[in-house]
Amino acid sequence: MTASDRTVAFRIDKPFPDRAEAAARRAEAVARIRAETGIDEAMIDALVEGFYARVRDDALIGPIFAERISEWGPHLEQMKLFWSSVALSTGVYQGRPMPKHLPLPIDARHFDRWLQIFETTARDLCPPVAAEHFVTRARRIAESLELGVANANNVLVGPGQRYRRPEPAWAPDN
Q1: Distance between CA 164 and CA 141 in Å, rounded?
Q2: Distance between CA atoms of 148 and 146, rounded to whole angstroms?
Q3: Contact by Cβ (8 Å): 104, 149
Q4: Distance separating alpha carbons of residues 167 and 16, to the nearest angstrom
Q5: Terminus-to-terminus CA distance in the chain, angstroms?
Q6: Within 10 Å of residue 84's Cβ, how many Cβ atoms?
Q7: How many Å apart are CA 119 and CA 40, to the nearest integer?
Q8: Cα separation of 70 and 170, whole Å?
């Protein structure tokens, strides 16, 4: 059998698109999402600001953020870029959120609370179509981060399972 007789698994008949073509395709995708959802930078700004205002006041997850973020301005700007990339596919966020979350003392309870606050904020501040768009993506993000945190703690979470940090055994006070 010669090389030309073998089945080709895939074929690229066209060269990779140049940067201008890729940018045009991204711009079309962003415009389509904006038209379908009504999401724009002003809405992302309001959602991020509103969400983190609620997070800072939350008894469960607020302290985790407070211990790590002293200057909220830069964090909020990064989160706006992140949500622009996630919600609109703009590609403006270039960070890596997973490594930042792996060492945190968090588990399913924290992700559930994060989602609860996020969903409430999105539904309070955004039209229904936009809120659902944000919430769908937030749920995927939370699931991915929870799995990553579990893995970093040497816990394999199976389908339908959630990650819970081990709690110290109860011991009576001496």
Answers
A1: 18
A2: 5
A3: yes
A4: 52
A5: 80
A6: 21
A7: 18
A8: 34
The length of the chain, given as a count of residues: 174
CA angle 96, 102, 151 (to 5 degrees): 110
Which CA distances in Å does 168 have to 127, 156, 157, 165?
44, 20, 20, 10
Measured between alpha carbons, how far is 121 from 63 in angstroms, rounded to an integer? Answer: 19
Give how far the C-alpha of residue 6 lies from the chain's centroid of Cα atoms, to the nearest Å. Answer: 42
Q: Look at residue 151 and give its three-state secondary structure.
A: helix
Q: Do residues 153 and 165 lie in contact, with contact meaning Cβ atoms separated by under 8 Å?
A: yes
In the prediction, which pLDDT does 19 show? Answer: 83
pLDDT of 172 reads: 82
Residues of the chain with pLDDT under 70: 1-17, 174
pLDDT of residue 170: 78
Q: Would you say 76 and 52 are in contact if contact means Cβ atoms under 8 Å apart?
A: yes
140 vs 40: CA distance, rounded Å: 21
